[in-house]
Write a structure and sequence with these properties.
Shape: elongated
Number of strands: 19
Helix content: 25-40%
CATH topology of the largest domain: Rossmann fold
Largest sheet: 8 strands, mixed
């Protein structure tokens, strides 16, 4: 039927409705009009009152770990929302789909969480959102499509691995310098139990376990020291001039993050410096010595976002250490060692700092004689989810 004929039919029906007396038809017509008006009001209320927000306010993921993501849709009305389509966007680098779609109903004055799984495949900064909501009324007459600003940045941290026999220089300083910083037991870090012996302090007794075991047991604790540490990471691109350079760069970053984690577990103060590219700019990223979980999160967040530097040499990062106070344990993470680096580190050693050198590249130079000048040379490899620490002989 053409538009012209449809208009004529509508005019004819309207004239019949106005001038002819068909009460039944009028009741039906009024009912349809009222229903459409109520349907429009319902549609309008849903359009105005429907609320949607991100379920997770802040996102932090470690590479290789899965986490739940999604949105919460809220219905403040006294009527349920019977059908609404929610499309949430996600970065393909952290999920298997670019758009997650949900068809759900929401009870009156209720809320529903719509979630899906994301996985940090690789360290970096990613995004989820925005979210689009589609709604159609009962009759399919009125509908809307609304976009909610649910964008969130998701930081994927580098993977954290345990060390196999990591030599903590900050727990046992090396060299001929006398250690004036004592080692204390940390009562918040219980190591184990032992039977009571004469001389043990009464406050160490674990009364609950002693009652169960029918013998007196005392707590033993891990040690915590006041000696500071500094993690120095080499990300100068030219120093990674070998095959699989990206793999070794990522390994170096993961080792730096793992070392920061373990120093934090030991409740030590530590700083971090590296030559890198971050936020689109090349810079010497230097985070001063501090302690605590917030400090660790700051460092690991930076490690998630950095990339190699093309112009800032590693020597710039090393030079920044000459302002440190006496007795800092310096952990140098680099793909290779040369004579210039050794001479610079030797000057730091003479200033009272213990220096440990961790190489992560495929080149191991055993002819430098680093032990002869008081350094601790090690080669680090990540294998089977563990960082192997291999002493470099020579």
């Amino acid at each position: 039927m053409t538009i012209g004929r449809s208009v004529l039919v509508l005019i004819f029906l309207l004239l019949n409705f106005l001038f002819l007396d068909f009460p039944g038809v009028k009741i039906i017509a009024y009912g349809i009009i009222l229903y459409i008006l109520l349907d429009y009001l319902y549609y309008k209320l849903v359009y105005i009152k429907l609320n949607l927000e991100r379920a997770n306010k802040d996102f932090y993921l470690f590479a290789g770990m899965a986490e739940s993501a999604g949105v919460i849709i809220k219905n403040p009305l006294l009527l349920p929302i019977y059908a609404v389509i929610v499309n949430d966007q996600s970065d393909l680098s952290i999920s298997v789909r670019q758009v997650y779609s949900f068809l759900n109903s929401v009870n009156k004055k209720g809320a529903r969480e719509l979630s899906y799984t994301i996985c940090g495949k690789k360290r970096g900064l990613y995004k989820v959102g925005p979210t689009v909501v589609k709604f159609v009324d009962f009759c399919g007459i009125f509908s809307f499509e609304m976009e909610f600003d649910t964008k969130r940045e998701i930081i994927v941290f580098p993977s954290i691995y345990p060390f196999y026999e990591l030599p903590y220089k900050s727990l046992q300083p090396q060299g001929n310098f006398r250690n004036n910083l004592p080692i204390y037991e940390d009562v918040s870090m219980i190591k184990g139990m032992k039977e009571y012996q004469p001389g043990d302090e009464l406050k160490r007794i674990n009364w609950k376990l002693s009652a169960k075991q029918d013998k007196i047991l005392v707590n033993t604790y891990f040690c915590s020291v006041s000696l500071d540490s500094y993690i120095v990471l080499n990300l100068f691109k030219e120093d990674y001039s070998f095959k699989e350079a990206t793999f070794y760069m990522e390994s170096a970053i993961e080792i730096a993050g793992s070392l920061a984690y373990h120093l934090n577990v030991k409740k030590q103060k530590f700083g971090f410096v590296t030559n890198c590219m971050i936020d689109g700019k090349e810079k010497l990223l230097d985070i001063p010595v501090a302690s605590g979980n917030e400090h660790f999160i700051t460092i690991i967040s930076k490690l998630a976002l950095i990339s190699p530097s093309k112009n800032i040499k590693f020597s710039n990062a090393i030079d920044s250490l000459f302002s440190l106070k006496w007795g800092v344990a310096i952990y140098v993470i680099t793909p290779q060692v040369n004579e210039e680096l050794i001479y610079t580190l030797l000057e730091l050693y003479k200033l009272g700092h213990s220096v440990g050198i961790f190489t992560v590249g495929p080149r191991i130079d055993r002819t430098l004689g680093l032990k002869d000048v008081g350094f601790l040379p090690y080669h680090l490899e990540i294998e089977n989810q563990v960082i192997k620490v291999l002493p470099v002989e020579g």
